[in-house]
# Entry
Amino acid sequence: MRRARRRTVGFLSITIIVGVIFSGVQGISSAAPAPAPASASLVSSVAIGQHRHDVLVRSPAMGRDVPVSVLHPAHARSRGTLYLLDGGGQKTAVSDWIREAHADRYFAGKGTNVVLPGGQGAFYTNWRHVDTGFGRPQWETFLTVELPPLIDRRFHGNGRNAIAGLSMGGQAAFTLATRRPGLYTGVGSISGCPFTTGPVHESQIRAAVIRDGGDPTNMWGPWNGPGWADHDPGYRLRALAGMRVFISSGSGAPGPLDQRTRLDPGRHRSEKIATGAVLESSVNACSREFAHRMRSEGLRPTTHFRAIGTHAWPYWAQDLTVMYPVLAEAL
# Structure
């Protein structure tokens, strides 16, 4: 009799436990799926002539409205899209590519969308921590997840994208292209150093972020940490296979175009030229090393290494006209 009771109690216990587990599983399986991430939306769109719209995009990832200029053909036929990123320094809502290099004039009549984000670039990456200077930008999510579908819908994009930039933006272009290779068919850098790791490269990036008012540890973590390696395209070179790749820089030697550079208030031209010479010499060595590494992996980048030229807009404006035909083949 006692054995019978024990069996009954044991059976009931197991039944209750199984019932609880089963009801939990039912609860999980019948629960509503997690909501999809919110999409970016167009807040406003202002026509600036026939070939340009300045739009304001509400970005859930960034937590704010982001200004973007879009250069585009006048026709409504399908076309590819080039995302063109700025360098460092203090920024306005309109890209320096328009203000300094007159990219709107260059691309007028060409059969490509050109997307130029405005505002502080902060290496166009997702920052790990809130920063007193920059907040917590989520540029990678904005540029690679939120913005492309919106641009394609509004401006007749065909889904083929290339990404390029100058200086800081050139570095970011290669990082984004190697982290999201399925999104891009081409990538380009003008006077940028794609590498992020190693004492020299990390020091230069940290110095640029500090100069612009941010703490680089909030961006990718502590010195020589995994976050820096995770954003180094040198570790993902095979992701560039099949893309059109362009990389260029000057030697750092001053030339005639340096006399055309715009001066900051209170700054002498000789000082600006000297600073630009040092910076360009550094990115030239880095760009050449990156091109060498690409070729050692069997890639065939198009390179444009000038014998003269400092880190200055007159050279970058000319390099744009060399880079675009290369990347246009990918679009």
Remarks:
- DSSP finds ten helices and nine strands in the chain.
- The domain at 42-328 is CATH 3.40.50.1820 (Rossmann fold).
- The chain has one domain: 42-328.
